[in-house]
Amino acid sequence: MGTRGTAGGSGGGPRGISRRTLLIGGGVAAAGTAALTAEEIRRVWWRVPGVEKPRKAGELDYAPASWIAASEANWRRADRPDDYGVDRVIIHVTQGSFASAVRVFQDPAHQAATHYIVGQNGRVTQMIRELDVAYHAGNRSFNERSIGIEHEGFVDRPQDFTAKMYESSARLTAAICKRHGIPVDREHIIGHVEVPGTDHTDPGPHWDWPRYLKLVRAASTAGAGGTQARAFRTRGPN
Ligand SMILES: [Zn+2]
């Protein structure tokens, strides 16, 4: 507790605070409640002026996306991965059109939004920075540890899950996994339905997980955009 006050007032610089916090965290790891306090300190230290990562309006984490800002009521400002590690990608289905998903994520009354929306034509819109915690999983710790991707369509309409959508989403997920060091497997790339405590069923039984994981793996190993574009062209309409 005292460390927090000292850190805020010392003006000793963010690196000093960080190192000290980490040392405290390691030293008391065996003592449960004290470790929790150190953890809390680590999660707030970036709020000291000058510590937060620089951001610019409209800045993207995924270059092929376009930016439309979600309402600030639908996410929480954070500084991931420094305050919360990111180790899950959560797949959603919108139960509506792309435009309606954008609209509700801009609505402060909606109280939920994902980082990204992928359309049936493959377009990707980013609405929340990966630094920040989006309210999309219906579970606080899963919100804090995950990046959420919506897909345009309805869970009971398999025809909504187009080849372009699968491929575009897979490239996005591959990029997220690479950026955050997330393993490409079903333990770390999950459906909203798999989040503990959720009452949501998306992406539903028609979401083709083996196909999706295969595409994510292909995009991960392809690396450069050129190889991914070639893979995209060889696949016909579906
Ligand atoms: Zn969902």
Automatic annotation (TrEMBL):
<feature type="domain" description="N-acetylmuramoyl-L-alanine amidase">
    <location>
        <begin position="75"/>
        <end position="204"/>
    </location>
</feature>
<dbReference type="InterPro" id="IPR051206">
    <property type="entry name" value="NAMLAA_amidase_2"/>
</dbReference>
<keyword id="KW-0378">Hydrolase</keyword>
<protein>
    <recommendedName>
        <fullName>N-acetylmuramoyl-L-alanine amidase</fullName>
        <ecNumber>3.5.1.28</ecNumber>
    </recommendedName>
</protein>
<dbReference type="InterPro" id="IPR036505">
    <property type="entry name" value="Amidase/PGRP_sf"/>
</dbReference>
<dbReference type="InterPro" id="IPR002502">
    <property type="entry name" value="Amidase_domain"/>
</dbReference>
<dbReference type="Pfam" id="PF01510">
    <property type="entry name" value="Amidase_2"/>
</dbReference>
<dbReference type="GO" id="GO:0008745">
    <property type="term" value="F:N-acetylmuramoyl-L-alanine amidase activity"/>
</dbReference>
<keyword id="KW-0961">Cell wall biogenesis/degradation</keyword>
